[in-house]
Write a sequence for this structure.
């Protein structure tokens, strides 16, 4: 399974999620941002690659729907409701991500 994590600038939240889940044998993980200043920007190609997309906030889902309506059609998008209050690999962010994401990966061999 290919999993994409999305936040605004691909600086703290989505790279933390990517780091947490990247070494699992049953899925591939990438991260990107919706902002024009994102370290890695979300593209149609990334959307098409992903089987499952986790966004940190509702506004990220809305931006994906606005920019990639065709590509997003058959994709499951999960809103994690994680505000932009954390730095990369913040222990509290790691706990929140693990609690929020892991239930969705149980059927994917986590």
């Amino acid at each position: 399974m290919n999993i994409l994590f999305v936040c605004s600038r691909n600086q703290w939240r989505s790279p933390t999620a990517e780091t947490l889940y990247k070494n699992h044998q049953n899925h591939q993980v990438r991260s990107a941002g919706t902002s024009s200043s994102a370290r890695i920007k979300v593209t149609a190609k990334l959307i098409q690659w992903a089987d499952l997309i986790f966004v940190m906030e509702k506004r990220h889902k809305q931006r994906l729907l606005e920019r990639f309506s065709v590509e997003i059609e058959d994709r499951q998008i999960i809103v994690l409701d994680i505000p932009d209050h954390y730095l990369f690999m913040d222990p509290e962010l790691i706990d929140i991500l693990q609690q929020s994401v892991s239930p969705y990966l149980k059927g994917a061999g986590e």
In short: The mean pLDDT is 93. The chain is about 40% helix and 20% strand. Strands lie at 2-7, 28-33, 52-55, 76-79. The domain at 2-91 is CATH 3.40.50.2300 (Rossmann fold).
